[in-house]
Design goal:
Layout lengths: L1 H17 L3 H12 L4 H7 L8 H38 L17 H15 L3 E2 L5 E3 H4 L19 E3 L2 E3 L4 H10 L4 E10 L10 E11 L4 H16 L5 E8 L2 E10 L16 E10 L1 H6 L8 E8 H9 L6 H4 L2 H4 L3
Parallel strand pairs: 1-5
Antiparallel strand pairs: 2-4, 3-4, 5-6, 6-10, 7-8, 8-9, 9-10
The chain binds phenylalanine.
Phenylalanine (PHE) binds next to β9 and β10.
Length: 337
């Protein structure tokens, strides 16, 4: 029996040192020290021993068991450590690697749009975007541009068919707004618009921001006040604003608004084409017909409206010479902002 124990201890020691994983080691442990493992088997043989031999053998078996237990513990610890080390190495995340990836940022157009919207929101304007695919009614008729009216030529429009078109101005959203809101009202409609135009300063797709204020006693002075603070905020405190008479079917009287050139301060340069002024927007007092269409009494209420191209404002702020640069998404261009 003593021999058997020695043999068993020897085999178990060899298997412990051969175990190459925690689960393999566990299997060896079950095989030898488990409830019905080889040592328990051996213990059953004790019954056949003489009473005086039993304590002796018991002692030898217990010693062997103790020795094996400590071998298991030692090996278990070593395996645990090396398995942990291997996992840590395999799952290592190099947090410095992100340096290789450039951090993205807002497109200059989105950044300028956000600043513009923030400015008007800070002055108490509500924001409504409206649909890009519009009906003739909202884009033209309700804005006092009846079918066959020559004013339709001001905006070369993409008709989709029937009465549907890609909106040529965000004024369309203002009609929708007036259908659901009664004065006093103060809102802007920023968004994408579409016209069959294509040159250095015009793109078939561009972005507008139009504003509308309707209340009792609104005059051209209110319009001028808002536009002056707008111009000073975006082009500098020394910026001057000038109104020129113009024509839009939905405003009467109508004006075109210029700001003094922020580059040359009125002396004349390439950006302002030598005039010292840059045209930035159209505006005017809301036509009585438009108010009436929206069920607002023009004898009780008056309003002003204005509209400009966000792309144009972005180009002026950043000195970008060609509108298409904003749409090409050339990373070398975008990186400059
Ligand atoms: N909707 C006009 C345009 O797109 C701009 C404008 C808006 C003019 C409001 C006057 C008042 O050309």
């Amino acid at each position: 029996m003593e021999e058997k124990i020695a043999k068993l201890t020897e085999n178990c020691t060899a298997e412990i040192s051969a175990a190459d994983s925690e689960s393999a080691l566990y299997a060896v442990r079950v095989k030898y020290l488990g409830k019905s493992g080889l040592i328990s088997e051996l213990m059953k043989g004790m019954r056949e021993l003489s009473p005086e031999m039993r304590p002796l053998m018991g002692k030898i078996v217990n010693e062997a068991r103790g020795k094996l237990e400590s071998l298991f513990a030692e090996k278990g610890k070593a395996l645990h450590e090396s398995e942990l080390a291997a996992r840590l190495a395999a799952e290592k995340i190099d947090i410095t690697i992100d340096k290789a990836h450039p951090v993205g940022k807002l497109h200059p157009l989105s950044a300028v749009r956000k600043r513009l919207v923030d400015f008007f929101v800070s002055m108490g304007f509500d924001v409504m975007e409206g649909p890009e695919v519009e009906t003739d009614y909202y884009n033209f008729e309700a804005l006092n541009v009846p079918k066959d009216h020559p004013a339709r030529d001001m905006q070369d429009t993409f008709f989709i068919g029937g009465n549907t078109l890609l909106r040529s101005q965000t004024s369309a959203a203002q009609i929708r707004y007036m259908e659901n809101h009664k004065p006093p009202l103060k809102m802007i409609s920023p968004g994408r618009v579409f016209r069959n135009d294509d040159d250095a300063t015009h793109s078939p797709v561009f972005h507008q921001l139009e504003g509308l204020v309707v209340d009792k006693g609104i005059t051209m002075c209110d319009l001028k006040g808002i536009l002056e603070s707008f111009a000073k905020h975006f082009f500098g405190q020394e910026t001057k604003v000038r109104f020129r008479p113009s024509y839009f079917p939905f405003t009467e009287p109508s004006v075109e608004v210029d700001v003094s050139c922020a580059i040359c301060h009125g002396k004349g340069c390439r950006i302002c084409k030598g005039t010292g002024w840059i045209e930035i927007l159209g505006a005017g007092i809301v036509n009585r017909k438009v108010l009436r269409t929206c069920d607002i009494d023009p004898d009780e209420y008056t309003g002003f409206a204005f509209g400009f191209g966000i792309d144009r404002i972005a180009n002026i702020i950043h000195g970008i010479p060609h509108i298409k640069l904003l749409y090409e998404n050339d990373i070398r261009f975008l990186k400059q902002f």
